[in-house]
Design a protein that fits this description.
The complex is a heterodimer of chains A (254) and B (507). Chain A is α/β, with parallel strands linked by helices and 254 residues long. Chain A has eight helices and ten strands. Chain A has helices at 2-11, 46-50, 75-79, 116-122, 138-144, 178-190, 201-206, 237-247, and strands spanning 33-35, 56-59, 62-66, 85-87, 102-103, 126-132, 158-160, 169-173, 196-200, 228-230. A five-stranded parallel sheet of chain A has the order 7-6-8-9-10. In chain A, β2 and β3 form a beta hairpin. The N and C termini of chain A lie far apart (46 Å). Chain B is an alpha+beta fold and 507 residues long. Chain B folds into two domains: 7-106, no CATH class; 191-506, Cytochrome-c3 Hydrogenase, chain B (Orthogonal Bundle), CATH 1.10.645. In chain B, β3 (41-49) and β4 (55-63) form a beta hairpin. Chain B is globular, with a radius of gyration of 22 Å. The model of chain B has no long low-confidence stretch (mean pLDDT 94). The chains are: A alpha/beta (254), B alpha+beta (507). At the A-B interface, α1, β6, α5 and α6 of A face α7 and α8 of B.
């Protein structure tokens, strides 16, 4: 017992100050990209050509990047000699609609909160059922870490539960393989209304690296209505946490 | 082993496709069975279509002691006599061949789909399914026991936690498990088919996400293939950086596994400490390349990122702190009798079962088998900087946990050593095109075990075939055997002690 107590003292208090304090991210972290159309040479299309998931579209005077398709490999930034696409250290990028993820010069419209009526039910206690539908286990792993002492998800009233019957919502990872389609639908049906559906990672949003494979369904919103999209490959745990807290209206002022 | 029947190669050695012997299927069978009996192991066994009617089977056998690989091939049309009854290692591979290429291994004792997709040879099917039949995963003729007191427990695909999907069938008598059958395929997303015709701009991303927790391992195996095929020499600095990344991946996952094992026996201090320390290791990978799983770090020709002096200093400091924390956290396990009592003699595999099934990685080493690609088939910097092989002899959950702890210590020492002696020069070199009509086998010891990639190039210098064998592909059968005569309530603990990949298996 004494050994356990001494170890506990040695390990210290490790829960991060987020959301009160700003988290420290590595300087090489590839967070939300910003697009500057003015810098774009327009007809070179280098960024479009190197993008593995066709997330970029150039046409006369416009350059659009789909954060839902983006797997944050950074190839476009390297290819663009003019610096029209730059990955920033910004981890916040969850959105409520698929269209909001397609960014250009304008600032991204981050997710707003659920309606007041549903928030009255779920706002202080959100129980989620997670389903991996073809994910590579990276999104799953970085969702799972939210339950460790570092992020301590429980302090926000959010918890992952074992049964869909106990859940208020579904958090989906993976491109929804043909082989998981039925199980995903059944799990969602088993969750009592009102419920929220959250798509985490580029696979669950648009198919990720597997986009247009016959074995996958290019994301969850082909199967179910999605309330929150959290981009990334995989999203940083803070990106996921930020998205969840926005949905619950914890950042009203921002 | 006769030289006429097979071609001897080394890890990452390129050879002409035409040099691989094509032998009659009966000789091919005898060759594999005899080699397996004399201590070789099947690293890969796969089919590649030759024309409309024929499929060529390729086998890659590994001789761990000699550090050599043997290649051979045989042509088949619709069926051939199965190997599995005489060589249990072939079990899963033969089912895969049957599913992918509609080739029936006649006499296979357990012939059923492993991934539940339609055959890649249109209109043909080894299981007698018609093209219009919808294939439903998890629906097959499961092995069943009958009797008044026998009951069946079916779990999954959706499990009670944040984990990947798989279906498990237990045949139980009360609490005792007589047999566990594992049915996967829910994560199948068509990676191998999509790799044909590559490399292209998506190839590296398929590798990085074949099993997301083994991003470095699979990406490194692929890059070795790429570099061998274009005869490119990667700088010593890049090789060293790759090895640092591979060991950080091992550290993160082994730490996570030890924490999860502690959690599964209800010992929360180590469970919560390790959950956090695992993140510290992931963040070290993010320090190098910006991504916690190492996305973008390994690329053909070297590494996508170099370690600057400030990063190196930071990494050294963080590693020293994490080493101290993990030592305290893990040593609690061994000094807590209630933990050790639950680990010991749970889910025991004998060395013979392990050898017969051709299991790899931590699982094999926990049965006392010296099997580690870093030692047996060293590539990259491991040719110059050895990592001692860690083994334990008891084959139970304790052994699998303890081997992880031994490896954590070895990896920490290895990374420290590499950082001290990090070679100079640039981290990436330019690349040429791939050499046509070649075959190359690349082995990397990922944190779960041997990752085997085999690439064949066509006359255009593109991949005409690409085979990925994740260590989980070998080891799922081991979990099934470990559960025999165990209590069903010990399944979570046994499962966690294997911690196999679903997506790496399903591809």
């Amino acid at each position: 017992m004494i050994k356990t107590i001494l170890a506990r003292i040695q390990q210290k208090h490790r829960t991060i100050a987020f959301p009160k304090g700003e988290p420290a991210l590595p300087d090489r972290f590839r967070g939300r990209p910003v697009v500057d159309t003015k810098k774009c040479a327009n007809d070179c299309r280098e960024c479009e050509n190197v993008c593995p998931t066709d997330a970029i579209h150039c046409s006369a005077g416009s350059l659009k990047l789909d954060l839902g398709r983006c797997i944050f490999c950074g190839q476009c930034q390297q290819a663009c000699k003019k610096g029209a696409i730059q990955f920033t250290n910004e981890y916040r990028m969850a959105a409520r609609s698929r269209e909001d993820l397609i960014i250009s010069d304008a600032e991204i419209k981050l997710a707003d909160a659920l309606g007041t009526r549903i928030r009255r039910v779920l706002g202080r206690s959100l129980k989620l059922r997670q389903v991996s539908a073809g994910g590579c286990n990276a999104c799953e792993a970085d969702t799972n870490v939210l339950t460790t002492i570092v992020f301590d998800l429980g302090r926000f009233g959010i918890q992952f539960v074992a049964s869909p019957r106990h859940a208020d919502g579904l958090l989906i990872t993976g491109p929804v393989t043909e082989n998981m389609k039925l199980a995903l639908k059944k799990t969602c049906e088993a969750i009592p209304d009102p419920k929220v559906v959250i798509a985490v990672g580029s696979c669950a949003i648009a198919g990720g690296p597997y986009i247009n494979h016959p074995e996958v369904n290019n994301g969850a919103d082909r199967i179910l209505p999605v309330d929150l999209y959290i981009p990334g490959c995989p999203p940083h745990p803070l990106t996921i946490l930020d998205g969840l807290l926005r949905l619950l209206g914890k950042f009203n002022s921002k | 082993m006769s030289k006429l029947q097979s071609l001897q190669i080394y890890n990452c050695e390129v050879s002409e496709l035409s040099k691989i012997p094509v032998i009659p299927i009966s000789d091919f069978r005898d060759w594999i069975i005899k080699a397996a009996q004399s201590g070789c192991r099947i690293s890969a066994l796969f089919g590649k279509p030759l024309d409309k009617n024929r499929v060529r089977l390729f086998a890659v056998l590994a001789n761990d002691e000699a550090g050599t690989l043997f290649l051979s091939s045989a042509d088949v049309e619709e069926s051939y006599p199965s190997l599995t009854a005489e060589c249990p290692q072939a079990h899963w591979f033969e089912r895969e061949i049957a599913e992918q290429w509609a080739i029936t291994p006649v006499g296979h004792p357990w012939l059923k789909p492993i991934r539940f997709h339609s055959s890649c040879r249109k209109g043909q099917d080894a299981f007698g399914r018609k093209p219009e039949d919808k294939i439903i995963p998890g629906i097959t003729n499961f092995f069943q026991l009958t009797g008044e007191e026998i009951h069946e427990v079916a779990v999954g695909p959706v499990h009670a936690g944040i984990i990947e999907p798989g279906h498990f069938r237990f045949q139980c008598n009360g609490e005792d498990v007589f047999n566990l059958e594992i049915s996967l395929g829910y994560q199948h997303r068509g990676i191998e088919v999509a790799l044909i015709g590559g490399p292209n701009k998506r190839t590296i991303h398929y590798m990085e996400t074949a099993a997301g927790d083994t991003t470095i391992g699979h990406a490194a195996a692929y890059c070795q293939i790429f570099e061998a095929l274009c005869d490119c020499n990667v700088s010593a600095r890049a090789q060293s950086l790759r090895a640092i990344a591979l060991e950080l991946e091992r550290l993160a996952n082994h730490t996570g596994d030890l924490g999860a094992l502690a959690g599964d026996v209800g010992y929360l201090p180590t469970a919560s400490f390790c959950g956090r320390i695992r993140g510290d290791f992931l963040n070290m990978t993010a320090l190098i390349c910006g991504n916690r799983f190492g996305r973008g770090l390994i690329c053909p020709g070297g590494t996508g990122f170099d370690l600057e002096e400030k990063h190196l200093t930071e990494l050294k400091g963080r590693l020293a702190k994490a080493a101290k924390d993990i030592t305290v956290a893990v040593n609690l396990l061994w000094s807590t009798p209630s933990v050790v009592a639950r680990f010991e003699e749970t889910g025991t595999l004998t060395q013979k079962t392990c050898a017969d099934l051709g299991l790899v990685g931590v699982i094999a080493r926990a049965c006392g088998i010296d099997r580690d690609c870093r030692f047996n088939f060293p590539s990259g910097i491991y040719q110059f900087a050895q990592v001692p092989v860690s083994t334990w002899h008891t084959g139970d959950v304790f052994a699998r946990a303890y081997v992880r702890w031994l490896e954590i210590q070895k990896s920490l020492a290895f990374i420290n050593n590499q950082m001290e002696t990090l070679p100079q020069r640039h981290a990436a070199v330019p690349l040429d095109t791939l050499s046509p009509e070649k075959i190359v086998v690349s082995l990397v010891e990922g944190w779960r075990g041997e990752i085997c990639h085999v690439a064949l190039t066509g006359s255009d210098g593109r991949f005409s075939h690409y085979k990925i064998v994740d260590p989980s592909f070998h080891n799922w059968m081991g979990l099934s055997m470990a559960l025999r005569d165990q209590q069903i309530s010990d399944f979570p603990l046994c499962n966690k002690s294997f911690n196999l990949s679903y997506c790496g298996h399903d591809l």
